[in-house]
Design a protein that fits this description.
The structure holds two protein chains of two kinds. Chain A is mainly alpha-helical. Chain A contains 14 helices and two strands. The chains are: A mainly alpha, B alpha+beta. Chains A and B meet through helix 7, helix 10, helix 12 and helix 13 of A and helix 1 and helix 2 of B.
């Protein structure tokens, strides 16, 4: 159905600015740049003034923005057409990773193609909501129960494959991305409540199926002081960092928890604690406001989208971004168990930032490839 | 499927989506609200609590170990000191590949198996920044070689630390003792806060006895550290107080002489300053180098020392218990005189043996053909056994034991070095208690010549000699004469003369016995007359020969035929000058043969040395 208005190459009657010509959305772009800039400042301090590390991160951010610009040029109808193929590829790659994983030890997430190392679970964060949106947009909304079952299957297969790697964090994020599509498509509240009830009933089974280190994380979350030098160490130190930061913080490069290396993983998963320690609650509120702005703008762009597919996809990508923010900040402040989720656009690290920016590229593409209905 | 579906209602779908989008936005705002409440709780409400914890994280107390007190001899020569030595220390947390590092280090620095063993024992995967010593006492060359290559070894460095060193090593090993690493037992005994930062503790000798005085008071510093424990800056500190120095009565030159005089024999020599009771020399041979023990001796060397038949680790002066042999005859003689059993002029015939009435066991004299008729003076001078058999029988064990205990036999001397043995002065009670047997008259006979059950340490013999020289006044052996506090005030520890009479006898009897002891050295028939020749002062002495094993009836002791280990112990006690007694000497030479030939000349040499330049 969506085919009829997804072609963007109609006659152009408007004068287009440079950003519009590049299919970019200025407010979203500014929000993203602001967060990245703040991230670089905090990362410089968290890494102890490591210029080499900072340069690497800048290059990564540059690459990620380039990916975003490239993705923004792809019209949504192309994504709609390719969605099933992406999905098929993703499943095959996940199976390959699992297959190879038997030969390696521990968690196997990477696929080494010789010239580049590639993490298939990462691309599923976009491909799963895309496939789900593709499937649900083929019929009028709200979806019927049978459709929801099939859509759930589309989500669950890759989620379980990723959980088998094992990579609990990513599999939860992928599940969220798919789940958001279901929710946004208008599945009934009654069904949502019923699902919630079933999930809580299944909790003991999930617990039984979890690996020791995953169980340990949950136990540590419930009582970090029980093992202050072991698994509780991270969360205790990060709470000390945040708490000792107070309202105004200890000042940039002056956080003792971070600079004296008490805070573990201060450049990556726990960088939010460095922000809190050095810039205090004020700094945190500024960053949270920027994140909230990005999410709001994303949701606004989603509501303005013209097809069901692009609406669902845009909404899901935006909310997944928020999940990143909340899971990370919740973990660092001790609200949630320790799950290896980076603080988006701020944490040092490569793959997730590229995926995120690709997602924002899709958002921008959806917005800037709209057909002008009232032209 | 696609063609079965109705045409979507665009407006309816967009309304539906908008509703859901608003719902999620509300959820987002609620979640961010919860997060902010949480952060306010952490950063505002509990800010003080976390500030304190952050402070506690970075500021740590570090112990500053005190410098151990030095030990000096009576003339101020250093016997124990602390030398900066260079050790190679590794911080395993900072070493990327430990095995490679150890391998590469071995190319620059000599690493023995025992170095590596000790290192691996201390290596446990505990959290935090900890130094472990790999090698001690690097040579200057090794320090230089490592320094040039240091950049290749992150986490490895040379550290200067104070190590206990005994400049006179083997000479003082049994007196000073040594320090070693604190072991588990000692850890339970000591106050851990006093010893935080200290790795060594006195193990034997003076080092152990005076541990509390030598150790000093630990200091403390507040340092800012990072999570690995590396010190970043010192915030404040309380300096440690060094331990007290010890000044000994020991004269290291006399000690050296005594050691040389013993030659290749095993045994003990003790020289006592009679007026004060201070130990001038205390030698136990064979000896060992205490410096080997300070930083952990390797297993092979320790095994060799520990299993050696000569027992070099055994301090014979305090722990060696020997039959005193004839050296106690002057004391037994004095007992006879004082208790009215004998008269000094009365003669007894010595046929070369003695038999108890009604028994046919022959108690032999050392001189097979006998000494003919001897009075007390001749019996002491020529060391006649038969005379003392008769005297002992007449005295009885009870009186003899009671009188000899006055000379401190059978009890610890109270020397300020831990662990001395008390010897054995047998009595009826003791025999009943330990052997559950009555006392036999024959045992009284051999006790009177210092054989049988009787045992004394060389130190006890020296003290008994000093008491004899002071005519019964108590002498308390002591080795530390002063403690020097860190503010350089000296606290004298030697006994003040207290004229405590331990043995009471009339002057006449003391004169007679001491005269006989002079005759032993200076008389024409004295057993030690060889050492009396050309002496510039008068020596009173007594030789002794202690049987290591008994000779069967009707057999004659043939020194040449007996293997060295079973040869008699050679003993000598003496003091000089007689008119103003200054030095008492006791010599025990294991398997030395007769006392006159081996032990007496050693005593003379020490007396000469001391009395010529006291």
């Amino acid at each position: 159905m969506g085919m009829s208005f997804s072609t963007a190459d109609g006659p152009q009657t408007h004068e287009r600015g440079l950003l519009e010509g590049l299919h970019l959305d200025l407010p979203l772009l500014l929000g993203l740049l602001f967060v990245c800039g703040m991230g670089i400042i905090v990362l410089y301090s968290a890494s102890g003034g490591d210029n080499a590390l900072l340069l690497k991160q800048c290059i990564r951010i540059g690459i990620a923005f380039s990916v975003m610009v490239v993705v923004a040029q792809i019209p949504p109808h192309a994504l709609l057409r390719w969605a099933p193929w992406f999905f098929l590829c993703g499943i095959v790659l996940l199976l390959t990773v699992l297959w190879l994983g038997h030969t390696g030890k521990g968690a196997q997430r990477w696929l080494d193609l010789g010239f580049v190392r590639f993490q298939p679970s990462e691309m599923m964060k976009i491909v799963v909501p895309m496939m789900t949106a593709w499937y649900l947009s083929r019929a009028p909304l709200p979806p019927r129960f049978a459709q929801l079952l099939i859509a759930s299957l589309i989500i669950l297969v890759p989620v379980l494959l990723i959980a088998r790697q094992p990579d609990l964090g990513t599999s939860l994020l992928v599940a969220c991305a798919g789940g958001f599509v279901l929710f946004l498509s208008g599945m009934s509240w009654r069904l949502i409540l019923a699902l919630g009830a079933v999930l809580s009933a299944l909790a003991p089974v999930i617990w039984y199926r979890m690996l020791d280190y995953q169980k340990q994380r949950v136990l540590t979350f419930l009582n970090p002081e029980s093992d202050p030098l072991g698994s509780g160490y991270h969360i205790i130190q990060s709470k000390i960092a945040l708490g000792s930061g107070g309202l105004y913080g200890k000042g940039w490069m002056n956080g003792t928890q971070a600079q004296l290396e008490f805070l573990p993983e201060r450049s990556t998963d726990f960088i939010f604690a460095v922000l809190g320690e050095e810039f205090g609650l004020n700094g945190i509120l500024i960053l949270l406001a920027a994140y909230l702005f990005i999410v709001m703008r994303g949701m606004y762009l989603a509501t303005r989208a013209q097809t069901t597919f692009s609406r669902l996809l845009a909404g899901s990508l935006t909310l997944t971004f928020f999940v990143y923010v909340f899971v990370n900040t919740g973990m660092v402040s001790g609200l949630l168990p320790v799950v290896g989720v980076p603080l988006p656009l701020v944490s040092y690290g490569g793959t997730s930032i590229v995926t995120l920016m690709a997602g924002f590229g899709i958002l921008m593409s959806i917005h800037t490839h709209r057909k002008l209905l009232h032209a | 499927m696609r063609h079965q579906t109705a045409i979507s209602d665009y407006l309816l779908e967009s309304q539906l989506f908008l509703g859901r989008a608003v719902a999620t936005m509300i959820l987002v705002i609620v979640l961010i609200g919860i997060l902010i409440v949480r952060l306010i709780d952490l950063q505002i409400v509990n800010h003080h609590h976390f500030s304190t914890r952050s402070q506690a994280n970075q500021v740590q107390l570090q112990a500053l170990p005190p410098t151990r007190g030095l030990i000096f001899d009576r003339n101020g020569e250093i016997l124990a000191q602390n030398l900066p030595t260079f050790s190679l220390e590794l911080i395993p947390d900072q070493i990327p590949d430990l095995d490679t590092t150890l391998h590469d280090l071995a190319a620059l620095i000599t690493l023995t198996e025992s170095d590596l063993d000790r290192f691996h024992k201390q290596l446990n995967p505990s959290r935090g920044f900890r130094k472990i010593a790999l090698r001690f006492r690097l040579t200057d060359e090794e320090v230089a070689r490592f320094s040039v290559n240091r950049h290749r070894f992150p986490g490895v460095d040379v550290h200067a630390r104070l190590t206990r060193e005994y400049p006179k090593g083997e000479l003082t090993s049994h007196v000073i003792g040594y320090v070693g690493r604190i072991n588990v037992e000692e850890l339970e005994r000591i106050d851990p806060s006093d010893y935080s930062g200290t790795s060594h503790i006195g193990k034997t000798g003076i080092e152990k006895t005076y541990e509390d005085i030598l150790h000093g008071d630990v200091g403390v510093q507040h340092v800012e550290t990072n999570a690995l424990g590396r010190t970043l800056q010192v915030l404040k500190q309380t300096a440690p107080t060094r331990g007290n120095h010890l000044h000994l009565t020991l004269d290291i030159h006399l000690q050296e002489d005594a050691t040389t005089a013993l030659g290749d024999f095993n045994g003990s020599v003790i020289a006592l300053h009679i007026p004060s009771g201070g130990i001038l020399a205390m030698v136990s041979k064979p000896t060992f180098d205490t410096n080997l023990f300070v930083n952990g001796i390797d297993h092979a060397t320790y095994q060799a020392l520990n299993t050696s038949a000569d027992k070099p680790l055994f301090n014979r002066s305090l722990f060696g218990q020997y039959p005193p042999g004839s050296t106690i005859k002057p004391m037994v003689g004095l007992a006879g005189l004082q208790l009215g059993i004998i008269d000094s002029a009365q003669r007894h015939f010595c046929p070369g043996f003695f038999m108890l009435p009604g028994k046919d066991h022959k108690y032999r004299d050392w001189k097979k053909q006998g000494h003919a008729a001897v009075n007390l003076d001749a019996a002491i001078t020529q060391s006649c056994d038969v005379y003392f058999y008769k005297l002992g029988l007449a005295l009885g064990i009870d009186k003899m034991q009671d009188f000899l205990s006055g000379f401190g036999l059978g009890e610890p001397t109270g020397l300020d070095i831990v662990g001395e043995q008390s010897g054995l002065l047998p009595s009826r009670d003791w025999k009943r208690r330990v052997h559950n047997q009555p006392w036999f008259p024959g045992e009284t006979l051999i006790t009177a010549i210092g054989q049988g059950f009787m045992l004394t340490t060389p130190l006890q013999l020296a003290r008994a000699t000093a008491i004899l020289a002071k005519r019964g006044e108590d002498v308390q052996p002591k080795i530390v004469r002063a403690i020097e506090t860190p503010d350089h005030s000296r606290q004298e520890t030697l006994m003040q003369p207290h004229h405590d009479q331990r043995v009471s006898a009339t002057d006449k009897h003391w004169d007679e016995v001491i005269a006989s002891m002079i005759h032993v050295v200076h008389g024409a028939r004295g057993t030690a007359r060889a050492i009396g020749v050309d002496a510039e002062y008068t020596i009173a002495g007594k030789t002794g020969t202690a049987q290591v094993f008994s000779i069967k009836q009707d057999e004659v002791y043939q020194p040449g035929e007996i293997v060295e280990k079973l040869r008699d112990h050679s003993l000598f006690i003496g003091f000089a000058p007689v008119d103003d007694p200054q030095i008492a000497v006791a010599v025990v030479v294991e398997n030395g043969g007769s006392g006159s030939k081996v032990a007496a000349p050693i005593a003379r040499r020490i007396m000469d040395r001391y009395l010529r330049n006291p």
